[in-house]
Structure formats: C-alpha cells, structure tokens
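Single-chain item
Fold in token form
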Amino acid sequence: MGHASMGKIMWVDLGRGTIKIESIPDTLYQTVLSGVGLAAHLLYERIPSGADPLGPDNVLGFVSGLLTGTGSLFTGRWMVTGKSPLTGGWGDANCGGNFSPAIKRCGYDGIFFKGISPHPVYLCINRKKIELKDARAIWGKDTKETEAILKKDSGCRMPRIACIGQAGENISLIAGIANDGGRMAARSGLGAVMGSKKLKAVVLDGNKRIRSHDIAEVKRLSQKCNENIQFMPPFP
C-alpha cells in the first residue's frame, strides 16, 4: 500500500530553543515501518547509555502510526515514547482521539523532544509557523483547563492538544499525557518526562493531506477486516 505520510520528523531541542526538520529515508521505513518501530530505532540511536530518564539526554517522542489517516480500520492511535522513569528502560503509552492524525496533518510522522527548557513552554504548529511559546501562565493548570485555554489562546483554528497536568509538572512517576478532554496515554510515567522537560503541551493544527499509495486497496482490506470482526462464534 505504500507509506502514507511525508517521510519527515521534527526534533525540538528545548534547552536551546531550536527546531530542526529531518527527512527519513524510505529504506528505514521499509525496515521499521513507522510509529513505535521508528521511535524505537531513533531513541536507541540517540539516547546515550545510562541517560537519566528525567534528564536532558532523554528523548520524548510523539509518533503516529503507518496507516493513520488512510481510512483503514483501527489505526488512529498515537504513541508517546521515551526512557521510562519507572523502569529505566523502554517506555511507551498510546491513546486514541484526534491527536494521531493531527501529527500527520502537520506533515510529520513524529515529533521528538530533547533537553530541558529553562521555563515552561508549549510547542505550537499551525498552518503558518512552528514555535515554542511561553507556558508559564498555564503551568499549574489541570489538563482540561489547559486544553480549554490553549484552544482559545494558541491562535489555531482547530487545535489538537496533548498536555500534562499537575502530576506531570510535579514529576509523579505515574503521570500520563492527556488529549481530547481526558483521554490518557498513561503507561511508563512519560508524563513525568514531559514535566521534567518543562513541556506543558503540544498543540497541532495542520492541514496537509494524508495520502495513500493505493486507496482502493486500503478500502478493500478494511472492508475484509470489518467482515471478519463481525463474526460471532455460537454460544450455548
């Protein structure tokens, strides 16, 4: 069916306040596909051995799956990845809602953060620019309050938001990352990693089309999948 996105990822260095776009070669996609496979490859390469999960060398990644936005079934979840402060090893958590296609509609398969900001910030990607914005005014707000404020004040038309509340800010090792009014990517303590980086939220409002190499085949396979899951075994 082919890869369905732009073949690009974003790197945000919170300590330096810099943003860099990186192209991903097709050969890598053919090996690791996308989503968690891509994140695992990049984090294995770029997190130094022995890095503190709550330190500047840890990488926090927000990734979208290979088929997200193509119309295929059960492919709309996003995943956050990083070195877990709970285990000291690989950490990931996934969640539904509208955030996964929003990553791709901004033109990326993943957004990765390293470093620690000197003060609370949030990343805002809209249809005109990409910027790190001051989040000191919303630091201390819970996730629902944060979403409501950023929907109003971020300057985006239809923002999709992932954010932390007080638990993440206070580095609770069971903190999750919320989107869409309470959906939660809750495993591995990655909300604490987000808080340690002083990253309050990620706000996305792209309008790029998500393309598929063979739309008809995606539809055919999805219909076949739907037929299979409708089967109910007989119960006495």
About this structure: Residues 1-6 have pLDDT under 50 and may be disordered. The longest helix spans residues 215-229. The longest strand covers residues 8-13.
